[in-house]
Amino acid sequence: MDRKELQKSILENSLKAGACHLGSALSCVDILIEFFDILKDEDVFIFSKASGVSALYCVLADKGYFSKEKIAEYLKNYPLPSVEVPGVIHSLGSLGHGLPLAVGMALADRNRNVYILMSDGECQEGTTYESALFARQHNLKNLYIIIDANQYQALGKTNDILNLDTAFEFLKNTLPNCEIRKTIKGGNIDFLQGTKGHYKNLTQELLEQALCQI
Amino acid sequence: MPDLRKAFFDYMSEIAKNDKSVILLVGDLGFSFVEEYAEKYPKQFINTGCIEQSLIGIAAGLARGGKKPYVYSGSIFLIARAYEQIRDDIAFNNTNVKLCGTGASQFLGFSHNWIGNENEEDLLKNLPNIKRFYPQSEIELKQALMSEGCAYVRL
């Protein structure tokens, strides 16, 4: 699945399901494609930026965990990543729960790689730093973190609300496999960028406009 | 209520000896009780330090990875401080984690309040899946620790 197909799937299924959080889903499209290209069967993948769930379900369907016809139904019934959806190993919703879970799984079996996709908003949660210190203390080299730094949160620019520059430095210095990836919230769809795409629901007309821009 | 802390670590030694997937996590608590277990089973023991919220998530991750985590801490830190983690990562997800809390009714007061956590029953009773045990004897304690699935055990 390439970027364009994944974007299209996210948009169409979000409209069908009446789901929002499109900005969050669209900012992590490239990272998800990259992750699922390198994931082996025995690896663990944790999608911690739970509100971007539509992107996760679209990728899981593409990888054959379930049929593409089920995406909208799952999005409607499980609007946050849930174990009832094939391919999801732990139900997540609140920010800051994915990293402790990933750390525990990496510790449970050091021969298995654990990959986690986090949001930059989650880097405002205290558990991020507790877990990072623990991961370093226990030398968890099999833990791989990418932070989707789309630089916006619900009410505005992340750095205007709670600046993360020094936090990112801390995480990079503390965790050997932690990458901060700057992305664009809403991807290349102008009316979903920044805070505009956080809670916006699509209409048929907006979907058509969006599809022209991907 | 009997002080079951010594019996807890004795039983944990027995459980850890018989099942290598058992792992005991303590939140920097257990002074003068935990040492013997920690020395005997270093690969099945972690003092996580004071990271009470992440401790619950880490335990859930260990359970998801096939381990059987037992978490030992003061009730107030274990239940009240990490309540959302217990709700989401243990109860909602039904992960096989035992939460073992001490000092629930101890007086460690400040400003005429209690640091005890006698209301843990109120906090836990409406959550799905998680069993609650208030053992009154060593035998009841052992039964609680050997129970299936996620549980809270007051020591």
UniProtKB/TrEMBL annotation, chain A:
Spell out the PROSITE patterns in the cross-references.
Answer: PROKAR_LIPOPROTEIN (PS51257)
Identify which cofactors the protein needs according to its UniProt entry. thiamine diphosphate
Q: Where is the Transketolase N-terminal domain?
A: 41-170
A Pfam short name: Transketolase_N
Task: List the keywords (alphabetical).
Answer: Thiamine pyrophosphate
Q: Hey, which family's this protein in? A: Belongs to the transketolase family.
Q: What is this protein called?
A: Transketolase subunit A
From TrEMBL, chain B:
What name goes with this protein?
Transketolase-like pyrimidine-binding domain-containing protein
Limits of the Transketolase-like pyrimidine-binding domain: 2-155
Q: Which InterPro entries match?
A: PDH/Transketolase, THDP-binding, Transketolase-like_Pyr-bd
Cross-referenced Gene3D superfamilies: 3.40.50.970
Signal peptide extent: none
Output the lineage of the source organism.
Answer: Bacteria, Candidatus Shapironibacteriota
Q: Which organism is it from?
A: Candidatus Shapirobacteria bacterium GW2011_GWE1_38_10
